[in-house]
């Protein structure tokens, strides 16, 4: 086990930031940590890294208790926080070299690692640029390079794709998977559900300082009542369709917005056929109709009762 957290409690006065928080991250995983703002994600990360004192519980990293002076463990950890942390007075290459040098004493080896990190994040043409001259996406790539240049065994990324363009986002996600394929274990937090679903092998959902659900994407989807979402484009707006639909035994909810009908249903094999039969029987004209499995956002909303972007 790379990270094992047991019954962690962290209080700020009367506020309980972590309430008997438990977490296990296995070697070789890309582990997603999700939660609405204020759920305790950043506090949990800071406690895992022994940057914050906690009131109760235990944290093990690489099989040993994590302490402020666990320097050997910390040499094998890379951290990329949400707020970009680089020196504006240093160039791209100088920044990466500085952060790599904090972990690697051998100057020749450090030089090679810096070149690898520059190529890894695609900043070859920007090595002499100062951070203020970089776009948001390139600045995020620099931030990542500074955190992973020393080839850590455990990488913690706290919302690394906030406010970046789609091209840079794809580059960052591909880079994370590449790091993982090279042996790094990754803890990844994000507000973008599609990212988590794309790259994470297991996911934990936090709320009010504790983990309320954990598993693979499919396991999480199996925990909720919603089995599928059926969407039909009506040829005319007809709210009158809802009454009968809502009485069908498998229907959780049915709503009409403009001319779009959305039916959320429980798990079942013939739900789409039953909705089609209802529309045809009641002579309700429709165009395109399609069925979707629940998304990770549906899981999050049903489990926490909140939108992730709150």
Characterize the structure shown.
The protein is of the alpha/beta class and 310 residues long. Helix content is 34%, strand content 29%. It has two domains: 3-221, 3-Layer(aba) Sandwich (Rossmann fold); 226-293, Protein-tyrosine phosphatase receptor IA-2 ectodomain (Alpha-Beta Plaits). The strands form three sheets. It has a six-stranded mixed beta sheet, sandwiched between helices. Strands 2-1-4-5 form a four-stranded antiparallel beta sheet, with helices on one face. Strand 12 and strand 13 (260-266) form a beta hairpin. The protein is elongated and about 75 Å long.
Annotate the secondary structure layout.
Elements: E1 3-12, E2 15-25, E3 30-34, H1 41-48, E4 56-61, E5 64-65, H2 71-75, E6 77-80, H3 92-101, H4 107-121, H5 136-148, E7 154-158, H6 166-181, E8 185-189, H7 193-199, E9 202-207, E10 210-215, H8 217-223, E11 226-234, H9 242-246, E12 251-257, E13 260-266, H10 271-281, E14 286-292, H11 296-304
Parallel strand pairs: 3-8, 3-9, 6-7, 7-8
Antiparallel strand pairs: 1-2, 1-4, 4-5, 9-10, 11-13, 11-14, 12-13
Helix pairs in contact: 3-4, 3-5, 4-5, 5-6
Order of helices and strands: EEEHEEHEHHHEHEHEEHEHEEHEH
**Helix and strand composition category:** alpha/beta
- Annotated CATH topology of the largest domain: Rossmann fold
Total E-strand runs: 14
Shape call = elongated
The CATH superfamily of the largest domain is known as: P-loop containing nucleotide triphosphate hydrolases
Q: If you average the pLDDT, what whole number results?
A: 92
Count of helical segments? 11
Return the domain count. Answer: 2
Q: Give me the Rg, rounded.
A: 24 Å
CATH class of the largest domain: Alpha Beta
Poorly predicted runs of 5 or more residues: none
For the largest beta sheet, what order do the strands appear in spatially? 6-7-8-3-9-10
